[in-house]
Amino acid sequence: MRLYEGLITEGYAGAYDSVRRFVKQWKAESKDMQTPQQAFVPLAFKPGEVCQFDWSQEVVELGGLEQIVKVAHFRLCYSRKMFVVAYLREAQEMLMDAHNRAFGFFGGVPLQMVYDNPKTIVDTVLTGKERKFNRRFMALASHYLFEPVACTPAAGWEKGQIENQVGNVREWLFTPRAKFETLDDLNRWLVQRCHELSNRKHPDFAQTIAECFQQEQPLLRQITTPFAGYVEHLMKVSRTCLVRVDRNQYSVPAQWSGQVVSVRVFAGHLDIVAEGRTIATHQRSFLRDQLNCDPWHYLPLLEKKPGAIRHGAPFQNWELPEAIRHVREKLRKQDKNERAFVDLLLLTREAGLDALETACELALESGVVNASVLQNAIRRLIEPVRPKALNTSDTLQLTTEPLADFQRYDHLLGNRHVH
After folding, report:
1. Helices H, strands E: what count in the chain?
2. Are 119 and 205 contained in the same domain?
3. pLDDT: is 368 or 74 the higher one?
4. Rounded to an integer, what distance in angstroms lies between the CA atom of residue 365 and that of residue 375?
5. Same domain, 117 and 66
6. Is 108 within a domain?
7. Which domain holds residue 330?
8. What's this model's pTM, rounded to 2 decimal places?
9. pLDDT single digits (tens) 188-227
10. 292 with 360, same domain?
């Protein structure tokens, strides 16, 4: 089919069957009949019983640059429904994220998953089919309640469907080379193509793959919540409020400097956790020696070191709203330093960035830009709303007004009992 589509773009006006017959004849003529053929036992699978998994390496173009991606392949053995997703690495967090995506795509979980023996899944290959599975991978399997099955080493025929799929997908989806702006764009397209390829005829039944999947899908185990697919590391925060992951550095709020935190590495981002809560989240970088800083993590340090805002690495490419940038330039010209602007930033810990932006817009509109005016504007913006005064009607009058009668106290005193 891919050859036929390529010929169409070159101006071929013939039929697909002609191309198919030619390829079949060419394969028969070029085949070495002296090569002994290996025999296999035909396999049959029940709906919802088995899904096979494998990785492949493909070359794509992302943002105009050639890029090698690792593609995770899934295939339900009964319906032949497939799912593929691409990553920049073949790490364990990618493996777990791929399972979350695949089970979400299928709308359920099969009884068994069949694998090779990669280190992200199998720690030790024992005798026969015995395996010591990776602890974190077994947490994934226990969460979704599927049975992991590892193939015999170098016995690809034990998961022949997925082995064939890897070759077919390379021809169907990655030849000619796929070109997209981002990895997310590529993965959205792969999901769409998986749906489209389900309209092909099933090799064993007089139905399409999509029709067979409709029969299989209700028999998959339903998903309650996705698995938290991260790899966790305990790290000590440096004096510059950074932790290092895969040769890249990520910032942590300044108050955690010198303390031990938990870094949870996901496929596309990482969370930094301390005392049971997430204190920082960063988009994951797959380059090397990158500094990923959130300027707000260093805000408390500016209280004692305001000059650091000018040359501090976290503040070099700080994308502040336009109104705040204009105010910063005006304040710098007035005071010849950054102290006034830093004082405004410190107010955002209580007021928030939106209040500072609004105050800057109001100051620029009025033409009066100085620190005291801006601080007053911010405080007015965050001032709690005063309760509305009650409007009482003049017609509300007591029908019987009380009289001041001090004789009541004499009466009470006269009835007092002395013991």
Report:
1. 14, 15
2. yes
3. 74
4. 16
5. yes
6. yes
7. 320-381
8. 0.78
9. 999 999 999 999 999 999 999 999 999 999 999 999 999 9
10. no
